[in-house]
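Q: Please design a sequence for this.
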């Protein structure tokens, strides 16, 4: 959202830091996924940005994008969000035999390596003031593009999750 996430920061003693921002509820929704190459253990980050909320149509577009870029079977492990369920998603999976969907247990964000991506993205954007929606969009793109090329940052997302040890061996 245009309202920046706040984080502890420095200020002169006795002076509370003030972050000025525009009170706007414009939002950018992002769908993303961390991939792991089964042989080389190379990590990848795929993402798409949308204005407003994500729908099942956009989820299908994203899954199609991942299938286009990844070889072999693709196993998607995701949370139980309402937009991940429904007849359209089931029909999509039936048409794409390489795609296998697995749901995380309810209320288990600690198992999702993608949460590490958002933790790093929000940290880089904290206390930042974006005067326009496009400034926020550009900052988010720059942040995510930086994660795409950083194997150590993506590995940190895997290692910080509470996945079973054999899944964290990348």
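A: Design:
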């Amino acid at each position: 959202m245009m309202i920046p996430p706040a984080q502890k920061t420095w200020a002169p003693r006795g002076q509370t830091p003030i972050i000025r921002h525009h009170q706007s509820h414009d939002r950018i929704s992002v769908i993303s996924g961390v991939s792991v190459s089964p042989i080389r253990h190379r990590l990848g980050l795929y993402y798409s940005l949308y204005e407003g909320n994500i729908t099942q149509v956009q989820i299908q577009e994203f899954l199609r994008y991942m299938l286009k870029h990844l070889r072999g079977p693709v196993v998607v492990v995701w949370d139980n969000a309402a937009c991940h369920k429904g007849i359209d998603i089931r029909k999509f999976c039936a048409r794409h035999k390489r795609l296998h969907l697995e749901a995380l247990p309810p209320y288990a964000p600690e198992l999702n390596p993608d949460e590490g991506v958002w933790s790093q993205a929000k940290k880089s954007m904290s206390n930042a003031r974006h005067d326009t929606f496009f400034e926020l969009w550009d900052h988010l793109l720059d942040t995510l593009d930086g994660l795409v090329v950083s194997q150590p940052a993506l590995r940190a997302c895997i290692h910080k999750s509470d996945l079973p040890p054999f899944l964290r061996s990348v």
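Q: Thanks. Anything notable?
A: The chain is about 35% helix and 15% strand. The beta strands are 28-36, 43-51, 74-78, 99-103.
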